[in-house]
Amino acid sequence: MRARLATTLGGAAGTMSRLAGRGDGSVIGGVIGLRVEPDLLSLLSVDRQIVLVTGTNGKTTTTRLITAALGALAQDVATNAFGANMEAGLAAALGKAPDAPLAVLEVDERYLPRVLKATKARVVTLLNLSRDQMDRAAEIWLVARRWREALAAAPDCWVVANADDPLITWAASSARNVIWVAGGQRWQEDSWCCAVCGSHLMRDELGWRCGECSFRRPATRWVLEGGSVIDSAGRISDLSLTLPGRANRSNAVMALAVAEVFGVDPAHALPRLREVTSVAGRYTRLERRGRQVRLLLAKNPAGWLEAFDVLEPAPGPVLLAVNAQGPDGKDTSWLWDVDYRVLRGRPVFVAGERRLDLAVRLEADMVAFDLVDGVDNAVDQVSGTSLDVIANYTAFQQIRVTLGRAE
Ligand SMILES: [Zn+2]
After folding, report:
1. Measured in angstroms, how far is the CA atom of residue 216 from the centroid of ligand 1?
2. What angle do CA 98, 102, 106 make, to 5 degrees?
3. 212 Cα–ligand 1 center, Å
């Protein structure tokens, strides 16, 4: 009853917020609901099976993929599809789908412990941990430690974890039930040291291991192998996703492993994953002034590395856009952590409020570029028919508004 009242009030606030043109209203409803009923999240979680998804990169996409896969079991799956991933956003997502028996929720890394406790999730999905735009590597060790404590206190929960990320492995290994996935790890700059003893980690074709203690990559039940997945039964299937890039293939294998916990076979889940064509405005091609523009969101060094992997082959042009507003992190020194040399040999345009910071960085990597005022300015200078755009958070939102907010 209290949950219903809080949800109703929250829902009304969400509607008002939408009518006032202030976003999609998904957070304000939850904020008001939580103020009325601080236990709203746990009340709304009762009698549902919940999947939580967290990690530095790929949360929104993986949440979308798992939701698609679990669509095989239920018409209505509650989810926070637009990335409102703190308590208010989660409460709003559950409140909006009161009859959904399943929920797939993206959770901010720092909120995982308290959300796990409140929701009593059946599955927690741990993707990767690396420095984010506004913090340095030290903080992710603290995050991993808190996850360890939270998972140790949730013995009924299943954890689906990327075994190729040593810090994820350390965090997940406190859990009673872990399904290890070989999801790959391209960005290794934040995992040179053993989380157990602090020694140097060694890597070879078999994975990673500590040179001093017994901490090593666990044996995996699911494997991403090029464009294919090897499932828990040893069967090999072509992923053939519509979403591009290695990072999304990794996200898809994580989603398949989660789906299996719910009894959804890869043969049933995979066709559903292939139907996902875009995620919150990313990856779709939009027509702009006679050219095809594709938007990629990348917020931190690991994300930029994965975005480069998705670009059209050279000499396909690319626009890089960087802001440094609150959600982006004010400090742009992370730009120096990215290796831009792969962009040599293609037209590069640079935009955004901090385009000069990026320009200095590109100069240092000897990547030729043109400064532009915005996406249309770049579109007008492209000689071919397409343009890829990589932007960080608020730069992405600005470009999306310019291009007309397609889903
Ligand atoms: Zn060690």
Report:
1. 8
2. 95
3. 5
